[in-house]
Amino acid sequence: MKRILITGGPTNEPIDEVMKITNMSTGSLSTGLARLFLKAGYKVTLVLNQGVKMEDDVNLKLVKVETTDEMLSALKEESDKQDLEGKYDCLIHAAAVGDYKADFSFLLEDMAEEIYEQFDNIKSAQDILAIMENPKCKVNDDTKISSYQKNLTVKLGLTPKIISNLRAWFKDSLLIGCKLLENVSKDELFAVATRLANKNYMDYILANDLADLRKGLPARYLIDKDGFTNITLPETRDIFNFVHEKVNQ
User: Fold this and answer.
1) What gap in Å lies between CA 195 and CA 211, rounded to an integer?
2) What stretch of H or E contains 179?
3) Model confidence over 29-69: pLDDT tens digits?
4) Helix (H, G, I), strand (E, B) or coil at 197
């Protein structure tokens, strides 16, 4: 029985106990693909955001995650199990992984006061930046931050790039990733996706323009290490058919 691993939905990064940074992904592509592969007799592992629903199936392993770090850990755990459970024939990394997470929060007036207090020691913009990158005035985000802080500011940091780990963890699998840009030329879209494929040793990237998606045009241009393959996979079933053919050659 063929095995496939699919990631899906957004990642959520907490600001405090209540608020979070997320995106508009619904996870529908990933759950739709999972249903098609299950119907075709595959064993499917679906690494999915907590808020996305997926019905049970005897051949479905559902791994629920919330943050980018949790998704990264789940994928590493799945890679470690391959010697016992068998390798994955394909991994489709379709999750909308957030680029940013909240490092800490602060109030603008507190930051201004902290910088002012150290004014005599400030010799350059870099000195100010050093204060702002690691201030003493961080707000406690272990619980809910007050709703009445008009100058609340969140300092964002980068999340880890999941795609950069996939080839090392799933050496023999067909790897398919996704890339979304907005209002760019097709040449630029294809060039960015091609670089992504080569940098991360991905077999294919499904590239889209958000502007096209808003118009109801889910083209999903198929990119490999050499560029646009002249294949588009607009529908979920088109992606399924392409992968099904590749892993059963």
Assistant:
1) 21
2) strand 174-181
3) 999 999 999 999 999 999 999 999 999 999 999 999 999 99
4) helix
